[in-house]
C-alpha cells in the first residue's frame, strides 16, 4: 500500500488503458454463440444491414439492444471500412472504449465518495485492470458487456446517495439503471434496489420521486416495441415467457449455481480468514447498495432453469467493489499472508493471460477470413458436420458453399479443380488420412488452450472447439 500511495493515479489509469488496448488488439475472439447468432449477423456486414433487419418478428430481443452495435458498424462503413471483419473490430473497439471509460469514471467517483486515499484508489483500479475475468469479457459486443458500466454507475451513484442523502444522486441512479434495462432487460430487476434504498433511509419523498422517475423511464422504454412490434414492451414479455417455457431446454442448473460461480470466479478461497465483527458489520452497512444489486440479480437469474456464466459479466465491476475491502484487509498484514497473496496473484495472472490473449472461436474466425481472401474456392466439403458453422458474416462477398460429404462422394471429386477444398477437424485427421493423401494443406485454424481442454473433457458439446485443417489439390 505504501508504494501505491506514491504512484499517481493518472499513471494507473494509463496502464489500464494500455492493458485494455492490448487485449483489443490481440484478441478478436467471440465469447458466446449468442454473441454471433443474435448479435453480429444482424449488423455485420454493415453494407446489407438495416434497422428493420435488426430484430426478427419472432425475436425476444428489444429493438433497442442492437442499435449501439449497428450505429458503430454503419459509422465504420461511412469512414470507408468495407471489410466486415474490420467493421466488427471497429464495433468492439468503440464500444470497449466507452465501456472502460465509464467504468473507470465510476470507480474514481466511488473512490472520491468513499474518501479513499491515493494508494487505496490505485489498488481498486488495479483490481479492475488485472482481474482475470474483466478485460476479455468487457471488450466483447455482448448485451451483458455494454450494460455493465451503466449498472456500475447506478450502483456507485446509489452508494453516493446512501452516504450523503442527496435526491439528485438517487435520480441519476434511476437513470443509469434504466439505460441498463434497455441494454439488457433482465437487469431491470436491479432497479428495485434504488427504490428500497430511500425506504431504508426513511426518505418517503425520495422513494416517491425515484418510483415515479423509474416508471416514466419504464414506459418510455416500451414505446419503441409498440410501434415496431405492435404491443407495449412486447420484447420484455417475450423474453420472460420464453425463458419460463423453454429455459429448461438449455439446461436445468441448481438455484445455487450463481452463488457457486461467484464463489469461484472471485477466488473467494483466498479471502477466507477471520475478520472482525466490526469490519463485517461496517462492510454490510456501507456497501449495502452493492449487496442489494447483486442479490436482486442472483434472485431473478436463479428463477429460470437455464443459467449461463456469461450473465455475470454485467455485475463484475460491482463484485470487485464488494471484494475490495477484503483485499485491503489482507494487504494490511501482507507479511502474515505472504503465501496467500502470492498464490492469489499467481493464479489470477495465469488466468488473466490465458483469458485475455488467447482468442476464443479463433478457428472459426480465421477460416472465414481465409475463405474470404480466396474467392476461387467454391465448394468446401466437410465431414462429420465439422465445422457446423463459421463466421460467414465476416466475409464481404461470399463465394463458397459447404457441402456435407462422405468418403464415397469425396472419391468422385476432381481435386485438380482449385475451386474444391475439404475441411477436417483435427480429431478426424487420422481417420480420414486416406482421403487427404496427396492433397495440399492450405491452412490450419487453431483454437486456444482452454478450448482444447473443453473438447477433451466433453467432445460432444465442443465440436466447434477443434483445430480445423483445410486441404485442396492446389497450392495457395
TrEMBL record:
Entry GO CC: endomembrane system
Protein keywords: Endoplasmic reticulum, Glycosyltransferase, Membrane, Transferase, Transmembrane, Transmembrane helix
A GO molecular-function descriptor: mannosyltransferase activity
Primary localization class, coarse: membrane
Coiled-coil segments: none
Topological category with respect to the lipid bilayer: Multi-pass membrane protein
Cell location: Endomembrane system; Endoplasmic reticulum membrane
InterPro entries for the chain: GPI_mannosylTrfase (IPR005599)
Name of the protein: Glycosyltransferase RgtA/B/C/D-like domain-containing protein
Organism: Pseudobdellovibrio exovorus JSS
Amino acid at each position: 500500500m505504501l508504494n501505491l500511495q506514491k504512484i499517481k493515479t493518472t499513471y494507473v489509469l494509463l496502464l489500464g488503458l494500455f492493458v485494455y488496448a492490448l487485449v483489443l488488439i490481440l484478441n478478436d475472439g467471440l465469447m458466446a454463440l449468442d454473441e454471433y447468432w443474435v448479435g453480429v449477423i444482424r449488423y455485420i456486414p454493415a453494407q446489407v444491414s438495416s434497422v428493420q433487419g435488426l430484430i426478427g418478428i419472432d425475436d425476444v430481443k428489444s429493438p433497442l439492444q442492437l442499435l449501439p452495435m449497428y450505429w458503430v458498424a454503419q459509422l465504420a462503413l461511412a469512414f470507408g471500412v468495407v471489410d466486415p471483419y474490420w467493421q466488427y473490430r471497429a464495433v468492439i473497439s468503440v464500444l470497449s472504449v466507452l465501456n472502460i471509460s465509464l467504468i473507470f469514471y465510476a470507480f474514481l467517483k466511488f473512490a472520491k465518495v468513499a474518501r479513499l486515499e491515493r494508494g487505496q484508489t490505485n489498488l481498486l483500479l488495479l483490481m479492475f485492470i488485472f482481474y482475470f475475468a474483466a478485460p476479455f469479457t468487457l471488450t466483447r459486443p455482448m448485451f451483458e458487456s455494454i450494460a455493465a458500466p451503466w449498472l456500475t454507475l447506478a450502483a456507485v451513484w446509489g452508494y453516493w446517495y446512501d452516504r450523503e442523502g442527496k435526491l439528485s444522486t438517487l435520480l441519476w441512479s434511476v437513470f443509469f439503471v434504466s439505460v441498463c434495462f434497455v441494454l439488457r432487460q433482465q437487469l431491470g430487476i436491479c432497479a428495485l434496489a434504488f427504490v428500497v434504498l430511500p425506504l431504508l433511509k426513511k426518505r418517503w419523498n425520495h422513494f416517491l420521486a425515484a418510483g415515479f422517475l423509474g416508471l416514466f423511464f419504464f414506459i418510455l422504454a416500451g414505446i419503441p416495441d409498440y410501434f415496431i412490434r405492435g404491443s407495449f414492451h412486447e420484447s420484455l414479455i417475450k423474453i420472460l415467457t420464453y425463458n419460463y417455457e423453454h429455459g429448461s431446454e438449455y439446461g436445468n442448473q441448481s438455484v445455487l449455481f450463481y452463488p457457486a460461480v461467484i464463489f469461484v470466479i472471485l477466488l473467494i478461497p483466498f479471502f477466507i480468514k477471520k475478520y472482525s465483527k466490526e469490519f463485517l458489520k461496517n462492510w454490510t452497512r456501507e456497501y449495502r447498495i452493492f449487496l442489494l444489486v447483486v442479490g436482486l440479480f442472483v434472485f431473478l437469474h436463479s428463477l429460470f432453469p437455464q443459467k449461463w456464466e456469461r450473465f455475470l459479466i454485467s455485475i463484475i465491476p460491482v463484485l470487485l467493489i464488494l471484494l475490495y475491502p477484503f483485499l485491503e484487509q489482507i494487504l494490511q498484514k501482507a507479511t502474515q499472508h505472504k503465501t496467500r497473496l502470492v498464490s492469489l496473484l499467481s493464479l489470477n495472472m495465469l488466468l488473466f493471460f490465458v483469458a485475455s490473449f488467447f482468442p476464443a472461436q479463433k478457428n472459426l474466425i480465421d477460416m472465414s477470413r481465409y475463405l474470404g481472401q480466396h474467392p476461387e474456392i467454391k465448394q468446401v466439403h466437410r465431414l462429420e458436420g465439422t465445422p457446423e458453422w463459421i463466421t460467414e458474416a465476416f466475409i464481404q462477398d461470399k463465394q463458397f458453399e459447404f457441402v456435407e460429404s462422405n468418403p464415397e462422394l469425396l472419391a468422385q471429386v476432381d481435386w485438380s479443380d482449385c475451386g474444391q477444398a475439404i475441411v477436417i477437424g483435427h480429431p478426424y485427421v487420422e481417420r480420414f488420412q486416406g482421403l487427404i493423401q496427396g492433397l495440399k494443406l492450405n491452412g490450419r485454424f487453431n483454437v486456444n488452450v482452454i478450448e482444447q481442454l473443453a473438447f477433451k473433457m466433453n467432445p460432444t458439446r465442443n465440436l466447434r472447439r477443434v483445430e480445423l485443417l483445410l486441404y485442396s489439390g492446389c497450392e495457395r
